[in-house]
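ZP: hey, is the adenosine-5'-diphosphate complex queued? I don't see it on the tracker
AM: it wasn't, my bad. submitting now with these inputs:
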Amino acid sequence: MRTKQFKAESKKLMDMMINSIYTHKEIFLRELISNASDALDKLYFRSLTDENVGMNREDFRIDITVDKENRLLTIADNGVGMTAEELDKNLGTIAKSGSLEFKKDNETGEDVDVIGQFGVGFYSAFMVADKVTVESRAYGSDEANRWVSSGIDGYGIEPCEKESVGTVVTLHIKEDSEDEKYGEFLDSYRISSLVKKYSDYIRYPIIMDMETSRLKEGVDTSAEDYKYSPDDYETVTEPRTLNSMIPLWKKNKSEITPEEYNGFYKDNFMDYEEPLAVVHSKTEGAATFNALLYIPAHAPWDFYTKNYEKGLNLYSKGVMISEKCADLLPDYFSFVKGLVDSEDLSLNISREMLQHDRQLQVIARTVEKKIKAELSKLLQNEREKYEKFWNAFGTQIKFGVYNDYGAHKDVLQDLLMFVSSNEDKLMTLQEYVDRMPEDQKAIYYACGETKEKIDMLPQADAVKEKGFELLYFTDQVDEFAIKMLMNYAEKPFANVCADELDLATDEEKEELKKENEDAKDIFETMKNALGGAVNAVRFTSKLKKHPVCITSEGGISLEMEKVLGQMPGAEDVKAQLVMEINASHPIADTVREAADDEDRLGKLAKLLYAEARMIEGMQVDDPVEIAELINELIVG
Ligand code: ADP
């Protein structure tokens, strides 16, 4: 047999395969089964118009055999087969060489993970085999040929005997080494599970002999108290179809039970709890695809970490081409699990190319709409479930509103929920707005670590006393998200600790204005005594019981300052503070009475400012000085 050389590029790929340290070598099986399935497709379609093929749909099959002793694994199909010329052309060169670029990563200079990115096809066999034989007889030919290669040195083609049309690929599996146990590919259970994992939905049966244990013939177990013993069983080898052939998502919805949907979810997405909702859809039009999407009932343990990988499994014609394809899910729906099966995508499309694939973008947009619609439906019809969803993934949705400068707020704003003061329950912004009294101008919120702490804020009293509802923002992201929305249903958001609340009547406002003007000099003295800690001191009418509070002016609230203060580079972001004194509290009179006593005003300013900071949960800058002032008061 004459040895022929591989084409230059094929040689490179072959070399990579042989020396591969790629960790997912198992994908070779998927590639070979997929080739076999394509060959079956070709002959099957031919059989539809050509009677001479003489085969029925159920005759087409793929057979796998393992021969442990000789370390042989074969994958045989009765598909269209190849002639000697085709063996030469198809297996001697890489058909898709154009797409196979041996790139180096621009930044690291390392070889790009070609194997991971491309369906590398037939040559992937050389990751696990040191010799590959392909015996094939093409449809319409009486001759068969054998292609043999032991790797880089080339390949040979010679005539051989083969009774029927089709192809048999035989791999001589590499010897085990310290690091690699290639022998696993000679274990029929391992092979069977790989078929299930990658090729379950190949439309032709994939058949392999499997050992099973069964009751020996003639064992009489009819007695009521019959005790089975191991001797009653025998081990037999039986051909078994390994793949289920029909994907769940290709069945009609009406034929699928909730148990099947849930079982599929638990088996495939590593969850012990049933999902909250399932979306099963068939889409035709700009893109034709099936989708099976699940909304989990709880966040995976690593969900809010960097390690979490979002994505949907991507199938092309029943073959999985990408696990967790990230481009199919926007970040704010990263919790969704599931898969997409498209007829339009090529099996060998690379991950890089997927990102730019127009078809995939269309699919991703449709998927996003379906998820949004399902969540809205849940919110409308199954409130309890939606609240469970919200508790698990609400933070992600809120980040979604905030990220990308609010680009997705329109998609997400109706999904938001916050706890409110009226009922101590989660409510949507729409529900809040629907319940607003006519004279309420804004959507009020307050920030704090917990609901209880917010309830203690002096600024919250005025809003609640007016009968207005207050939203509790206890998540750090809450206020950032709301700043992106700016308003909802044309109602602005107002932070009770920061914004001008405008709760007073015109007369009250007028009166307060006058009181503030009268006390202008007092406040100037107090502000100076605080040494620049606040931008202003003034009277307020919004406090009820408490004598004093701190509010902020401008875009940065105190809560935002706390969050930003922990971020590198944003430590200097400061809220502009105002100390507000309750104009109708006896302490206001004390302040007024001290008008001419600069020293006393200074001390009062420091004490009141410290008090207000403590109520806000902030640190007091100079506790020793404050303690001394208190002692002075106590001693009198
Ligand atoms: P791809 O499948 O992406 O085209 P491969 O390297 O896997 O690339 O295979 C190259 C070609 O060899 C296939 O396109 C097909 O024409 C042929 N081939 C591979 N396996 C078989 C098979 N089992 N039966 C018939 N033809 C095959």
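AM: back. The domain at 506-635 is CATH 1.20.120.790 (Four Helix Bundle (Hemerythrin (Met), subunit A)).
ZP: great, adding it to the tracker
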